[in-house]
Specification:
This protein is α/β, with parallel strands linked by helices. The chain has a single domain, classed as Rossmann fold (3-Layer(aba) Sandwich), CATH 3.40.50.20. It is 43% helix and 21% strand. α1 links the parallel β1 (2-7) and β2 (27-32). The longest helix is centred in the first third of the chain and has 11 residues, at 10-20. This is Phosphoribosylglycinamide synthetase N-terminal domain-containing protein. Residues 1-81 form the Phosphoribosylglycinamide synthetase N-terminal domain. Pfam families: GARS_N (PF02844).
Length: 87
């Protein structure tokens, strides 16, 4: 499963750290991430909501975990629902 964790703080690092331990996760990404997160996941330097949703669709991301509230307030969940095929 390809997983994207959105965020760059300590909470997001904990989410990435735990996801990295799962045998179900084949590829782990973080946007925008930080140097500590970069040790565990590939960083995606995208912060714009629409661009991030489009990237997730292009890269066939299976699961998106959003740590901070700000991307949700900016409509990330809505954009992901419009961009990704849920099924």
């Amino acid at each position: 499963m390809k997983v994207l964790v959105v965020g760059s703080g300590g909470r997001d690092h904990a989410l990435v750290w735990k996801a990295a331990q799962s045998p179900l996760v084949s590829k782990l990404y973080a946007a925008p991430g930080n140097p500590g997160i970069a040790e565990l996941a590939e960083l995606v330097p995208i912060t714009h909501v629409r661009e991030l949703a489009e990237w997730a669709e292009r890269d066939a991301i299976d699961l998106v975990i959003v740590g901070p509230e700000a991307p949700l307030v900016k409509g990330l969940a809505d954009q992901l629902e419009r961009s990704l095929s849920w099924g």
